[in-house]
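Summary of Year 1 activities. Much of the first year was spent building the evaluation harness for sequence design. The harness presents a backbone, in tokenized form, and records the residue chosen at every position. We chose the following record to illustrate the format because it has been used consistently in internal testing since the harness was completed.
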């Protein structure tokens, strides 16, 4: 019974912390309809899709056809399909083409709790400021085993994963999720929900990465060993080193993806400031075709209206570099609140909406896309 309880708790934790980052419905306040009529040029409609939602229930061909047909009817142009292995692409790509939907491969990037990889390549994994590998002392839950973005072998391993997906000629793009470090600080909602004792300060057991490669690379740049820095939590050069490690990896993937004629997008934390503080994401300076910040207001203990503020912060910081789609969590929104959130996102300058998840889109939500608020 305890094992079953822990498994349910683990799944819920993963769901709210980012595995579900997704889905996109393009819109313009007051004129969007569910079939996509009236859209402004440049707006896209994307939907993140789980291949087995509800959990452990693989979809039949007929179930896929029904889901994809509904998404298309509701105005979706593209789906972001969670791709744990290539077999799901073999199954769904032809069905997406039949439904006239673009398909992007959605991949979990740096979180990699793979037993074989941990055994054969323990040096690939992040180490906290206490010198503990996440293999031995994972943060928060057992699945929090993360690859180090500074490790050249990890970079090549990640690019190889992407390369294997790019061989699909009909694949439109790659979508990066968990392209970050483990959470330095959890939102208050998650601390309370999972009874995790933590405050807004940076604690060494949650501060990554201090592996030998990171330490040596930073020492070459600054002349300092990060383990000897007295102000580890606030040292600007050391913070920027982690930001830049993720940025460099994204940029290399972008170049690789574009050489193969694909697009690159990413799911990220909600605002530029929160993303940098919590998970070392400096996504404003990444090379992307578009970005989907997760505007999950309840996790931030904010009202729906906060979505406008968060969206505007991202749009203004990007200054037109690439489009931003506001990430909305259908589990946190009634259909009426969804209509308000869509309107506020449009007002703040977003190019579309990112929905978690496309599996949960319905007529009830769809009818509020074109409603004036």
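For this record, the design step produced the sequence shown next.
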């Amino acid at each position: 019974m305890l094992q079953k309880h822990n498994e349910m708790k683990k799944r819920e934790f993963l769901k709210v912390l980012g595995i579900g980052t997704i889905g996109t419905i393009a819109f313009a306040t007051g004129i969007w309809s569910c079939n996509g009529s009236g859209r402004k040029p440049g707006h896209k409609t994307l939907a993140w899709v789980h291949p087995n939602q509800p959990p452990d229930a693989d979809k039949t061909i007929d179930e896929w056809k029904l889901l994809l047909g509904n998404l298309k009817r509701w105005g979706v142009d593209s789906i972001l399909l969670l791709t744990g292995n290539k077999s799901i692409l073999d199954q769904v790509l032809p069905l997406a083409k039949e439904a006239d939907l673009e398909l992007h491969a959605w991949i979990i990037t740096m979180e990699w709790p793979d037993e074989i990889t941990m055994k054969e390549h323990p040096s690939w994994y992040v180490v906290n400021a206490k010198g503990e590998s996440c293999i031995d002392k994972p943060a928060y839950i057992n699945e929090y085993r993360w690859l180090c973005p500074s490790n050249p072998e990890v970079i090549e391993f990640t690019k190889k994963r992407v390369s294997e997906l790019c061989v699909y000629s009909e694949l439109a793009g790659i979508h990066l999720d968990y392209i970050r470090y483990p959470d330095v600080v959890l939102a208050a909602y998650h601390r309370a929900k999972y009874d995790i004792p933590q405050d807004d300060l940076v604690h060494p057991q949650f501060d990554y990465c201090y592996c030998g490669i990171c330490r040596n690379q930073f020492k070459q740049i600054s002349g300092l060993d990060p383990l000897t820095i007295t102000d580890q939590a606030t040292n600007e050069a050391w913070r920027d080193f982690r930001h830049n490690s993720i940025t460099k990896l994204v940029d290399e993937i972008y170049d690789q993806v574009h050489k193969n004629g694909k697009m690159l997008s990413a799911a990220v934390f909600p605002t530029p400031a929160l993303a940098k503080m919590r998970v070392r994401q400096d996504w404003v300076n990444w090379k992307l075709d578009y970005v989907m910040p997760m505007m999950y207001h309840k996790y931030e203990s904010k009202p729906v209206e906060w979505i406008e503020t968060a969206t505007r912060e991202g749009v203004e910081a990007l200054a037109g570099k690439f489009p931003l789609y506001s990430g909305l969590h259908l589990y946190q929104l009634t259909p009426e609140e969804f209509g308000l959130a869509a309107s506020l996102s449009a007002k703040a300058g977003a190019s579309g909406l990112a929905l978690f998840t496309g599996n949960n889109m319905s007529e009830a939500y769809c009818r509020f896309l074109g409603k004036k608020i």
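The first helix runs from residue 2 to 19. Quantitative recovery figures across the full test set are reported in Table 2.
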